[in-house]
Design a protein that fits this description.
Length: 229
């Protein structure tokens, strides 16, 4: 589904995922000279936003240090699609791409200022292994931002959302991306993902401090944010 990945994200969320990611990156608060690892980063949307916000912060402060962002994904086809985007070339060697498994990251300890992952953690075969890896590679004071589909706060809305998801999204995947099965899996994986409080406890168990939860659109998605202290 890589060639239609970004289009399908817009279709499934009616474009609202861009607002969720915008709020997520504002919470990360990128600064000049910082290094980001965007795990399961796909086509690099969050990584480019990180670099853009860090550059803007540098201009305001008169700090010329360039930030850096690495997009890490196990799916090489998504990385190739991201590198081909028109808004990638401007970042040059500030933006890098690595094909790797998020549960066994090819980095030494304490080498990133921030780790982000959007709509990818629920696909991990071992979530705790991934969360421990995120903790391992973050510098002291580093930030973790996990944006993921979650559980709605109102049961009646959850039922309506489930009906929409199972009837519309797989059919849209077939029509637009030519792949119904992948989007059927997506919906099923959302339903199997733990609720906000349960996932928060997992992040804390992996060693993160001051973990907070911000619900977006009534809990369709949630941002879990924690610190490596």
């Amino acid at each position: 589904v890589a060639p239609k990945y970004d289009v399908m994200n817009d279709v499934m969320s009616m474009g609202i995922h861009r607002l969720w990611k915008h709020d997520t990156m504002n919470r990360v608060n990128p600064q000049p000279g910082e290094a980001l690892l965007d795990v399961a980063g796909g086509t690099g949307e969050l990584a480019r936003a990180f670099l853009s916000l860090a550059a803007a912060a540098g201009e305001r402060r008169g700090d010329p240090r360039p930030a850096s962002a690495t997009v890490c994904d196990i799916n090489e086809a998504l990385l190739v699609a991201g590198q081909a985007r028109d808004d990638t070339a401007r970042w040059g060697d500030q933006l890098s791409w690595v094909c790797a498994d998020g549960t066994t990251l090819p980095y030494s300890e304490r080498c990133f200022d921030a780790v982000t992952i959007s709509f990818g953690i629920r696909n991990f075969a071992d979530r705790m292994a991934g969360l421990r890896e995120f903790r391992r590679i973050l510098k002291p004071g580093g930030r973790l931002a996990v944006l993921e589909f979650s559980q709605m706060t109102a049961p009646l809305l959850q039922k309506a959302y489930d009906a929409y998801s199972f009837s519309v999204i797989p059919n849209a995947g077939k029509l637009i991306a030519g792949d119904r099965e992948s989007y059927q899996y997506l919906i099923e994986s959302i339903r199997q993902f733990p609720d906000q409080d349960t996932f928060k406890a997992e992040i804390e168990a992996a060693g993160f401090s001051r973990v907070s939860v911000t619900n977006f659109s009534g809990g369709i998605a949630a941002l879990h944010f924690g610190w490596a202290i």
